[in-house]
Amino acid sequence: MNTMTRMLLIACLILPLAACKKEEAPVAAAVAAPLAAPTSDDLTAWRAYVTDVATRNMDGINNSPYVYFLPGEAAEGFGGQYERQLEKLERDLQAGIIEGNMLVFASPSSAKAADMAVTAFTPVNAGTMKGVKVVFIGKPEDGERVRIASAPAGVNYVFVEAK
Fold first, then answer.
1. CATH architecture of 35-161
2. Predicted TM-score of the model (pTM)
3. DSSP-derived 3-state class of residue 69
4. Are 154 and 93 in contact (CB under 8 A)?
5. Which residues of 71-83 are buried (b: 16+ CB within 10 A; e: fewer)?
6. How far is CA 72 from CA 35, 43, 90, 122, in A?
7. pLDDT digits (tens, 9 = 90+) for 65-78
8. At how many degrees (to 10) do helices 110-121 and 140-150 cross?
9. Residue 162 has what DSSP assignment?
């Protein structure tokens, strides 16, 4: 009986403390301000900017994004880099990009990034990329070209003005 009395006494002391536990205020996560688009062809600044934009658009995405980034047209070997990126993009699209993936297009030369995307999306069959997000970072007129070219594939298109 002595043990039973002790257990009841301990329970009477602990219960009020457990019931009085104060709710902790939720800790708000600090959200960094979006980066501004670089005003030069600095590759390091552009890569940081593209990474920031891609990260902010990852909702609904299950995998690492496919990023197709071109340097500025004045960069040494730009033509070769453009051709290699276009070939890689065309191979990726031919292999098939499935739902839950994201493609990101960006460049200090918005028109060339748009040219690459439009060229690669032209042969893609209608409705074959439903649930795939396409993010184009550039000028509005170039973004509209990419939206029109990628729409038949059934993608979720997002335009981010580089400003």
1. 3-Layer(aba) Sandwich (3.40)
2. 0.80
3. strand
4. no
5. bbeebeebeebbe
6. 19, 9, 21, 24
7. 999 999 999 999 99
8. 10
9. -
